[in-house]
Amino acid sequence: MAIIALVGTLQVQAASEPASKHVDPVATGRPPTSPPTSPPNRKASRAEAQKQIETEAARLERQMKAAEQQFNDFMERHAIRMRFSVDPDTKEVVVKVLHAQSGELIRQVPTEEALKLAKELDSQQGVIVQTKA
């Protein structure tokens, strides 16, 4: 999702920037370039923007894969298992962190108390909200 949002943002920025805008090389980290003297080739500008988007997306994907690997290594070293489910009453996603060998519940998000409260609030919704005829 973050990659898609980044791609959309970069596309909007690339499309909305004036063609004659001079880019500050210090701010962008790019080598200095002179301002264009003739109208720029829009196809070349779009191709360059697309290449930047693809480069950034690839960099973010590498970072995400590295973080995923670190997470998996941690889970394996500490014998932790995660279980995802949907509470039938509240329709909330429930994440349980369990000890892999014993099956002991380490943590649950949301807690049983929070799920119970959500269920109670949901059942009391008609009582709390009163309408006048």
Automatic annotation (TrEMBL):
InterPro entries: FlaG (IPR005186), FlaG-like_sf (IPR035924). Residues 13-52 are annotated as: Disordered. The keyword DNA-binding does not apply. It comes from the Bacteria. Pfam families: FlaG. Keywords: Cell projection, Cilium, Flagellum. This is Flagella locus protein FlaG. The lineage of its organism: Bacteria, Pseudomonadati, Thermodesulfobacteriota, Desulfuromonadia, Geobacterales.
